[in-house]
């Protein structure tokens, strides 16, 4: 027997409808590429998104199911694109502005984007490959300065496109399982792969992410979204913020730690989200400036494993709580999130930091498990290591334009490629990526565990560990280190002694390389593929 409830579809425009009706005065503040401050309210976001939707349908003749690319920084126009493109029945395809021209060419052609909205400051890459993009009909320029010119064919200016459009049209009717957005994986292990999100999955992710036990977003919050809007839809934070009525602060290209600290102070930001390297930089600035009474209370940290020392330093020095999260493009992205429960309040501070440094517990209507090499499911004992697998309402079940099922188990779980343990309370701890584990003399060594420990040393700013070939042991770990101060001299024996408190002798790196900067991927993770390549070429 069926329940007697209405079939009311969950759609992305419905999120904006709610934000507009309930929180029309909530602010969206953008610090634009030219460093000017732009501020408007949810009511303006709603009206301009409606104007843009009209332009998409009636000026550009976008059809339902078309892919529309965005190649842009974090700002209010990108927010408008988030809602107007799905509101026109099309698919918002966020393009990673940090990929190479060749990768961007592949992704646009693979998606068959019909239009691309691009920031004026970013047109250079697209100008170089425009002749190789046959499906793109026009480019629409965001934040164009006076007298803007470009070699891009058939370009329009965003503000001119929407200026005379009505703002009272209806959203295109879609089904909740229709596609609304697409992001591509970063392609560090092969060609990028498309992940196609549905209206339903995006709405459910926004709803549960905003709950108190997770990101805990409400209309009382002012949230700085540092994670790029092209990176898994900014972790779903813009959608969750609009649903909850939070004020949103968007930094565009002004991502330097000094600028972020200024935004936090001037815009009274109390919550934020970004990768560990961002928060390390912000911490260093706060320590140097001695900032007092910082309004920031919590921030989400993800994209890579955060050192426990970073979590502890923020809590001790500024009373700021770092909330560790884990996920990937294929999980929309949030898969787990680490918060303490009431019964943890009696634990010593060191134990609390240990729990908060884990990647956390699964969100509602998702499930995680760890699988052994023989296919058996690992016990939740906090010590048995296995490949992390996940399933749930916002988890991928196939890649775009691919029939391959090699990333999925026979019973329908997604194989993440991460390796980790799950304890009795369901807290996940990632120990490595499967491809980054180091096998030395038949024993596995976790590069992540070494990195986290090295970055706890007071003279180490960043540390990445890779496996290098060894004639005797097959592989040995090598540490690549950025000193806290550029001219600091680090003693290898001191570092080895420091690590000996956490690791047995065979796990400690034989070699230490000192660099000014560690290569990173387009989303801020250590690029170990590049590091291994540089080492093989004798350039590291």
Protein topology:
Blueprint: H1 12-22, E1 27-31, E2 37-41, H2 42-59, E3 67-71, H3 76-87, E4 91-94, H4 101-111, E5 115-119, H5 123-129, E6 138-142, E7 155-157, H6 158-162, E8 179-184, E9 194-198, H7 199-209, E10 222-225, H8 232-235, H9 237-244, E11 247-250, H10 257-266, E12 271-274, H11 276-289, E13 298-301, H12 308-318, E14 321-327, E15 334-337, H13 349-356, E16 361-362, E17 366-371, E18 386-392, E19 414-422, E20 428-433, E21 438-440, E22 443-445, H14 447-454, E23 460-470, E24 474-483, H15 492-499, E25 511-514, H16 528-536
Parallel strand pairs: 1-11, 3-4, 3-5, 4-8, 5-6, 6-7, 10-11, 10-12, 12-13, 13-14, 24-25
Antiparallel strand pairs: 1-2, 8-9, 14-15, 15-16, 17-18, 18-19, 19-20, 21-22, 23-24
Helix pairs in contact: 1-2, 1-9, 2-3, 4-5, 7-9, 10-11, 11-12
Account of the 3D structure:
A hairpin with a 2-residue loop joins strand 21 (438-440) and strand 22 (443-445). Among the domains are: 23-255, ANL, N-terminal domain (Rossmann fold); 437-536, 2-Layer Sandwich (GMP Synthetase, Chain A, domain 3). The protein has 16 helices and 25 strands. With 540 residues, the chain is of the alpha/beta class.
């Amino acid at each position: 027997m069926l329940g007697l409830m209405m079939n009311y579809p969950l759609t992305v425009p419905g999120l904006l409808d709610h934000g507009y009706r309930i929180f029309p005065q909530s602010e969206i503040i953008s610090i634009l590429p030219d460093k000017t401050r732009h501020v408007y309210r949810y009511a303006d976001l709603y009206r301009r998104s409606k104007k843009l939707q009209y332009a998409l349908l009636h000026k550009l003749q976008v059809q339902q199911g078309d892919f529309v690319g965005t190649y842009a920084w974090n700002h209010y126009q990108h927010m408008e694109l988030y809602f107007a493109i799905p509101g026109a029945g099309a698919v918002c395809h966020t393009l990673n502005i940090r990929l190479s021209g060749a990768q961007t060419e592949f992704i646009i052609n693979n998606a068959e984007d019909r239009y691309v909205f691009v920031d004026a400051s970013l047109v250079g890459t697209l100008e170089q490959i425009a002749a190789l993009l046959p499906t793109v009909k026009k480019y629409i320029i965001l934040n164009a300065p006076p007298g803007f010119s470009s070699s891009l064919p058939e370009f329009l200016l965003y503000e001119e496109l929407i200026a005379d459009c009505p703002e009272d049209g209806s959203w295109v009717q879609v089904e909740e399982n229709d596609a609304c957005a697409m992001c591509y994986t970063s392609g560090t292990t092969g060609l990028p792969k498309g992940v196609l999100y549905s209206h339903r999955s995006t709405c459910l992710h926004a709803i549960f992410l905003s709950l108190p036990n997770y990101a805990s977003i409400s209309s009382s919050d002012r949230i700085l979204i540092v994670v790029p809007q092209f990176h898994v839809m900014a972790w779903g934070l813009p959608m969750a913020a609009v649903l909850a009525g939070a004020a949103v602060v968007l930094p565009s290209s002004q991502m330097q730690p000094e600028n972020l600290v200024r935004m936090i102070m001037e815009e009274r930001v109390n919550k934020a989200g970004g990768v560990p390297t961002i928060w390390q930089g912000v911490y260093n600035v706060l320590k140097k400036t001695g900032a007092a009474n910082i309004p920031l209370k919590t921030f989400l940290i993800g994209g890579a494993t955060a050192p426990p020392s970073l979590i502890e330093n923020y809590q001790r020095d500024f009373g700021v709580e770092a909330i560790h999260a884990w996920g990937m493009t294929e999980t929309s992205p949030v898969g787990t999130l680490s918060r303490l429960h009431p019964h943890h309040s009696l634990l010593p501070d060191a134990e609390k930091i240990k729990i908060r440094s884990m990647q956390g517990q699964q969100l509602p209507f998702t499930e995680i498990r760890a699988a052994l090499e023989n296919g058996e499911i690992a016990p939740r004992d906090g010590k048995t290591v296995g490949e992390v697998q996940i399933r749930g309402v916002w988890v991928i079940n196939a890649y775009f334009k691919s029939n391959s099922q090699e990333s999925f188990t026979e019973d329908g779980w997604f194989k993440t490629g991460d390796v980790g343990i799950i304890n009795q309370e369901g807290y996940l701890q990632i120990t490595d990526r499967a491809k980054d584990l180091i096998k030395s003399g038949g024993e596995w060594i976790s590069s992540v565990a070494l990195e986290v420990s090295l970055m706890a040393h007071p003279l180490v700013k960043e540390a990445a560990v890779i496996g290098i070939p060894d004639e005797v042991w097959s592989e040995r770990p090598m540490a690549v280190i950025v000193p806290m101060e550029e001219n600091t001299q680090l003693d290898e024996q001191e570092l080895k002694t420091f690590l000996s408190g956490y690791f047995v002798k065979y796990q400690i790196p034989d070699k230490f390389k000192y660099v000014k900067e560690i290569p990173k991927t387009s989303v801020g993770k250590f690029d170990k593929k590049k590091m291994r390549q540089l080492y093989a070429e004798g350039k590291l």
